[in-house]
TrEMBL record:
A Pfam family assignment: DEAD
Keywords of the record: ATP-binding, Cytoplasm, Helicase, Hydrolase, Nucleotide-binding
UniProt entry tagged with the keyword Nucleotide-binding: yes
Region (Disordered): 369-452
Protein name stated in the entry: DEAD-box ATP-dependent RNA helicase RhpA
Cellular-component GO terms for this entry: cytosol
Positions of short motif Q motif: 1-29
InterPro entries: DEAD/DEAH_box_helicase_dom (IPR011545), DEAD/DEAH_RhlB (IPR044742), DEAD_box_RNA_helicase (IPR050079), Helicase_ATP-bd (IPR014001), Helicase_C-like (IPR001650), P-loop_NTPase (IPR027417), RNA-helicase_DEAD-box_CS (IPR000629), RNA_helicase_DEAD_Q_motif (IPR014014)
One example GO MF annotation: hydrolase activity
GO-annotated biological processes: response to temperature stimulus; ribosome assembly
Length: 452
């Protein structure tokens, strides 16, 4: 099957050919034709499968006819992050170049609101937005949604993770009831199923991969390390000959900053993106990575989804993700568009429960494909460490620290005994008082308590 068999226009087929594509991916085969027919759709597909083009291509043909009006976008695409929204905008520019009348606006945070309002006032066919900025402008009266006939909810499970579901429900209620709705997600947890049942009408479901499955082109490796050996294990992975370009994921923004600084001192060509950076700096770092000026990008989960960067050979989970679903999306930055890739996960003993949750979600064990040189080195470090600890334990009885510890324990115990003894002292004089005259108010001699 070719793109021509899917019913796309000649102009669109020409743009697709210019981009170097001739055969649609499974999600594109299943989603494009129903979308052109005006049906609601649920698309379940992992990252790197051509999911974005599966709704961008038919939307361009659908919107080729008709005219936009001021502040009333004809279609709306909701994205969880600014980076992913910008990615979708690039797809519209690439595939819509032979549709010069098609207008588009990007509505995201971190950008001057005034410029976005000017675009909306001219009228747009396609509005790509993050939920927060869209609702902000709606409440200010700068945008009307009653003319929107096509809604795309992209990365729905990520929306769930980021707490956007109430915002999406609010937006859906502001749109016309008689509209076409497309929902795409890599996984299908119950809240997303509930959302689909609520706002989609008799949708066609296209599932090209089992929910929460990982790309077969990605070799997954688990590297067991101690917390203090994580950086040295990471450096060894990054120095490996097979690591041409890499994205290193951390759970916290502060870890991103500290790790990027450390790797820069080790002479790596490094960049970083995390939530505290403004939009212009994040885009600049991504451009440096795409151009090859840097070959390693340290990122928080703000970049875990939707970034379609060609040629990423390696993904490293420096921190095991808190949410199992994030593992699927992180490693999906490599092995894209049929290419192969390697995904390392550095796991400390405290990560055992999180690893178990991930393996349960993806339905397979991580690390069956073998170990990396870094993993072997980390294991080699762990093995001699155990005898050393044993030797130290054997020597401890004769060592000073042991005496000091014993002395400290004695000191800890003595106050406890003294705290227990005072009640006994109080009891003895009390009994003695019973034997003396009630008129005596002075101190009770200690010999009076003997034998009491």
């Amino acid at each position: 099957m070719t793109f021509a068999d899917l019913g796309l226009s000649d102009e669109l087929l020409r743009a697709v050919g210019d981009a170097g594509y001739d055969t649609p991916t499974p999600i594109q085969k299943g989603a494009i034709t129903p979308t052109l027919m005006g049906k609601d759709l649920i698309g379940i597909a992992q990252t790197g499968t051509g999911k974005t083009a599966s709704f961008v291509l038919p939307m361009i043909d659908i919107l080729a006819e008709g005219r936009s009006r001021a502040r009333m976008p004809r279609s709306l695409i909701l994205e969880p992050t600014r980076e992913l929204a910008a990615q979708v905008a690039e797809n519209f520019e690439k595939y819509g170049k032979y549709h010069p009348g098609l207008s588009m606006a990007l509505l995201i945070g971190g950008v001057q609101m005034g410029d976005q309002i000017k675009q909306l006032e001219k009228g747009v066919d396609v509005l790509i937005a993050t939920p927060g900025r869209l609702l902000d402008l709606f409440e200010r009266g700068k945008i009307l949604l009653n003319g929107c006939d096509l809604l795309v909810i992209d990365e729905a499970d990520r929306m769930l993770d980021m707490g956007f579901i109430p915002d999406i429900e609010s937006i859906c209620q502001k749109l016309p009831r008689n509209r076409q709705t497309l929902l795409f997600s890599a996984t299908m947890p119950p809240p997303i199923k509930k959302l689909a049942d609520q706002f989609l009408t008799d949708p066609k479901t296209v599932e090209v991969a089992r929910a929460a499955s990982t790309n077969e082109n990605i070799e997954q490796r688990l590297v067991k390390v101690s917390p203090r050996d994580k950086r040295s294990a990471l450096r060894e992975i990054l120095r490996d000959e097979s690591t041409e370009t890499a994205i290193v994921f951390c759970n916290k923004k502060v870890t991103v900053r500290e790790l990027a600084t450390s790797l820069k001192r080790s002479k790596f060509r490094i960049g970083q993106i995390q939530g505290d950076m403004d939009q212009s700096n994040r885009i600049a770092e991504l451009d440096r990575f795409k151009s090859g000026e840097i070959n390693i990008l340290v990122a928080s989960d703000v970049a875990a989804r939707g970034l379609d960067i060609k040629g990423v050979s390696t993904v490293v989970n420096y921190d095991v993700p808190w949410q199992p679903d994030d593992y699927v999306h992180r490693i999906g930055r490599t092995g894209r568009a049929g290419a192969t890739g390697v995904a390392y996960t550095l796991a400390t003993p405290s990560d055992a429960e999180a690893i178990e949750a991930i393996e349960k979600l993806i339905g397979q064990m991580i690390g069956k494909t073998g170990k990396t040189p870094a993993g072997d080195a980390a294991d080699a470090k762990d093995k001699p460490a155990k005898p050393k600890k044993t030797d130290m334990a054997e020597k401890k009885p004769a060592a000073k620290p042991k005496k000091t510890r014993a002395q400290s324990e004695e000191r800890d115990e003595k106050p406890r005994r003294s705290r227990e003894e005072p009640p006994k002292k109080k009891d003895s004089p009390a009994r003695a008082r019973e034997a003396v005259d009630d008129d005596w108010n002075g101190p009770v001699p200690s010999f009076l308590s003997i034998g009491v």
